[in-house]
Amino acid sequence: MFKSCWFIFILTLTGGGVEEHLLNPTLITSIRTSLSEAKSKSTPGTVLITVAELGKFFCNGFDFPWMKTVSSGSRINLLRHMVKLFKELVADLISLPMPTIAVVTGHAAAAGMMLVLSHDYVVMRRDRGVLYMREVDLGITLPDYFTALVRSKVANPDVRRDVLLRGVKVKGDEAVVKGLVDAVFDDGEMTVDGGVRLGEELSKRKWDGEVYCEIRKTLYPELIAVLGLVTKSVVKARL
């Protein structure tokens, strides 16, 4: 699920419930391991691109079918465990020392949408991609870092309201208008190509990853506090 090409690392989501790429401890741990590997190998100009196997879904959120394999009395505790694990993954992405791009070629729902918003840039498939926060429909309140992430990444309060309180399903062109994604493309392959081209453009700048990361963190003080991250001053320039 992980490969690198020149300065670009490609993280590919695979499997997880009929290609839904559902987030369970196994997948979350695998993603975090891949991010750690990318971090250890990063150099100026490194970029991370997250994609999913082409299909209906980019990521359909937490793996509720897997949770239902345990007794009903244990499911709430298991959900809390998942929420905690995923928080660590979000923190990894926000503190990753390189630009990050999510290539959304299918549905990204609930925690899947949060995974998308944890990236710096988002490109989306026009004919199939959907962004959707379904917690209000499911009857589940949001973890504090979910709402902090939305407030940090979604500038328009009306859009935040509609996404969280109405559970609207946002498709590609509308997502651009609402400021949720940066660009849309006509099909899956074109979306991946668009994400890679963006990655190549960013890589050419050869930014120092540590500096880039610290500037990113200063953009989102509420999110950084909720995630338990800290900022620091870094000077790499020759003054």
Automatic annotation (TrEMBL):
Q: Name one GO biological process term.
A: fatty acid beta-oxidation
Q: E.C. number, please?
A: 5.3.3.8
Q: Give, as one word, the top-level EC class.
A: isomerase
Its UniProt pathway annotation is: Lipid metabolism; fatty acid beta-oxidation
What are the boundaries of the signal sequence?
A: 1-16
Does the keyword section mention Lyase?
no
Task: Establish whether keyword Lipid metabolism is in the entry.
Answer: yes
An example of a GO molecular function for this protein is: delta(3)-delta(2)-enoyl-CoA isomerase activity
What's one Pfam family here? ECH_1
Catalytic activity, reaction form: a (3Z)-enoyl-CoA = a 4-saturated (2E)-enoyl-CoA; a (3E)-enoyl-CoA = a 4-saturated (2E)-enoyl-CoA
Membership in a protein family = Belongs to the enoyl-CoA hydratase/isomerase family.
Name of protein? Delta(3)-Delta(2)-enoyl-CoA isomerase
* Species of the source: Tagetes erecta
